[in-house]
Amino acid sequence: MTTPGLNLTSDYYTGAHPSLLWEMTICQSLGDGSGTFAKALEKPEAYGTLVAEYLQRSASLPRNCGEIVEIGGGYGTLMAALLEDLKPQQVTMVDISPTLLQKQQERLTRHPITFQCEDLFSWLPTLKRPIDLLILNEIIGDFPTITGLSRACLQTLLQKPQSKPKTRRLPSNLSRQELLSEATRLIATYNLNLDNLPETFNLNYGALLFIERLAKTKVSRTFITEHGCDTILPYPFSLYAAIQPEAVDLNPRRIQLKDHDEYNIRFDHLEQIAKALSFKVKRFHLMDLLKVRFDDEINYLLTSQRPLNEEQEIFLEFYEHVAEYQGILLER
Ligand SMILES: C[S@@+](CC[C@H](N)C(=O)[O-])C[C@H]1O[C@@H](n2cnc3c(N)ncnc32)[C@H](O)[C@@H]1O
């Protein structure tokens, strides 16, 4: 029998030199919308502008709304563009990394913003005020992932009465035995589908726990994006073998990055928990949110997989990368 492990990224982000330059987040790739990556979009724009448009369209988020909070805002790039478009009355940035929070502070000087250096899992239970919008962009893959869970072992545990949730305990402080009982509790409570998983699999524990704890707050809308392990490309991109997401096998996959690993996300599990906790749920593919270009040039590129110049090489890389990303919008 394998013992479960726990993948953590907190040491990396709280360390001296966390950097996002190695992992090409979509937000950083698009920058202010003037570079080559943005030319792959129907309307080249900064990522935050496109997110603001999506939220106004799909979540009826008004301009001049009350408070927006972003967790794990990296270099502050998303928020810089979003603020121009939405002009909220209050903004809070929460990040576990003092270094990245400092960069956000340097970037976001034009608006009054509160910056809080804290782990989401210790901050969320203290949140008592109403929030109009909570943003988690490319961060939930960094949350603790339980690795090496055995189906056979879980089947036995699932027959027994379930323990209570470990309220307020940080996932990183749980023992192996407690991790196993937390995994069992989540699977049993929300009837999470484990069909077609290999004998040993991984569980996005932190991401699932976040949804459970979110239900206890007064947040009206939550916008989440991340690499998915159950991502299905929208039409017409679904037709091109060149950009099909890697191994859609429903088992969160390790993504090796500089000095840390993250795991991609099983979004159907997030959806199951959110629905059980009475959230209205909308799932989307990032290709649709971004309105990625599809025309003769792109058709040729994706079919031939032979870029004719440097710009097309960058486009191909971008399409392959975006293909795995999806999002989920939770409303109450
Ligand atoms: C992959 S980066 C994404 C940055 C940015 N959202 C983007 O899309 O470019 C992850 C961010 O989440 C922060 N982070 C990771 N785990 C966190 C946690 N438990 N609580 C708060 N922030 C966290 C990191 O410091 C970093 O700013």
Describe this protein's structure.
This protein is of the alpha/beta class. The protein has one domain (10-148, 201-331): Vaccinia Virus protein VP39 (Rossmann fold, 3-Layer(aba) Sandwich). It is 35% helix and 18% strand. It contains 13 helices and twelve strands. It has helices at 10-14, 26-30, 47-58, 77-86, 98-107, 120-123, 151-158, 176-189, 205-214, 267-276, 286-290, 296-304, 310-322, and strands at 5-7, 67-71, 90-95, 114-117, 133-137, 145-150, 200-203, 221-227, 254-257, 260-263, 280-285, 325-331. The chain has a seven-stranded mixed sheet, sandwiched between helices. Strands 1-6-7 form a three-stranded antiparallel sheet. Strands 9-10 form a two-stranded antiparallel sheet. α4 (77-86) links the parallel β2 (67-71) and β3 (90-95). α9 (205-214) runs parallel beside α10. The radius of gyration is 20 Å and the shape is globular. It starts with a strand and ends with a strand. Residues 9, 13, 20, 25, 27-28, 71-74, 94-97, 100, 119-120, 137-139, 142 line the site of S-adenosylmethionine.
